[in-house]
């Protein structure tokens, strides 16, 4: 598995397995199958409600802890946010059955971000999180956090797919030593991604599926990807992307698909901000 080196010096697999929208009752088997297929980066979140199932799969896998790279995410915390961040991390570690995370991400750029970040820095300095980062931070919020803190996020996980390519964001992150990570890499099939003629044509040239072309496109750009599936055969297909390379012409052709806009929701929309910022997890 190819890796990227984070600004903390640790290596992160460039391709992992995400469990967003996998029901808790299906998550343990899905993660078990993913680990059997060779994935070692696992990405979950407190807000997904399936950390316990991820933890059971890890425990039962027999894979040494040092071979795994486990990520979870902090949801928006009430005041005192710094202290509540510690409690949220404790809860996630307990559900996962782990004594540390490889990466802890702030899930949304809302609430008392600076107090939350101080709590995350505490976790990093204590070794309970080997790296800390953010998710869904647009360039302005990311730079503001960087210039006002002594610890730069190691990762920013953002919507990134062929229809919203985030090249300018990636350049800015690279300049500040932040690793870009994609969520929604398949755009959840929107814009007919899996039957798109351009992507299908490129796949035919390599004997690969559209999904494999998209994952190759992401990782060839240096973007960490975390595709989700509950089908073992699809997991095996998704990880089989390191035996071919897209040409410069193919990369340029895919670049023409960029719309420059989200296919899901706008983090600058006041209604979206209000809804996400006010949501609280129950347990």
Explained architecture:
There is one protein chain. With 283 residues, the chain is of the alpha/beta class. The chain has a single domain, classed as TIM Barrel, CATH 3.20.20.100. Helix content is 42%, strand content 12%. It contains eleven helices and nine strands. The chain has helices spanning 24-37, 51-61, 81-96, 113-126, 139-147, 167-176, 197-206, 210-220, 232-239, 248-255, 270-278, and strands at 3-5, 11-13, 17-18, 41-43, 69-74, 103-106, 132-135, 155-159, 179-183. The strands form two sheets. It has a seven-stranded parallel sheet with strand order 3-4-5-6-7-8-9. Strands 1-2 form a two-stranded antiparallel sheet. The two termini are 35 Å apart.
Keywords:
11 helices; two-stranded antiparallel sheet; 42% helix; alpha/beta; globular; 9 strands; TIM Barrel; 12% strand
Number of domains: 1
Shape: globular
Sketch the topology as an H/E string, one letter per element.
Answer: EEEHEHEHEHEHEHEHHHHH
Number of strand elements: 9
- State the CATH architecture: Alpha-Beta Barrel
The proportion of residues forming helix, as a percent range, comes to 40-55%
Q: Specify the number of helices.
A: 11
Class per helix and strand makeup:
alpha/beta
From the alpha carbons, calculate the radius of gyration and give it in angstroms: 18 Å
Mean pLDDT comes to: 97
Classify the fold: give the CATH topology: TIM Barrel
Poorly predicted spans: none
Proportion of residues in extended strands? 5-15%
Largest sheet: 7 strands, parallel
Termini separation comes to 35 Å
Top CATH class: Alpha Beta
Instruction: Identify the strand order in the major beta sheet.
Output: 3-4-5-6-7-8-9
Instruction: Name the CATH homologous superfamily.
Output: NADP-dependent oxidoreductase domain
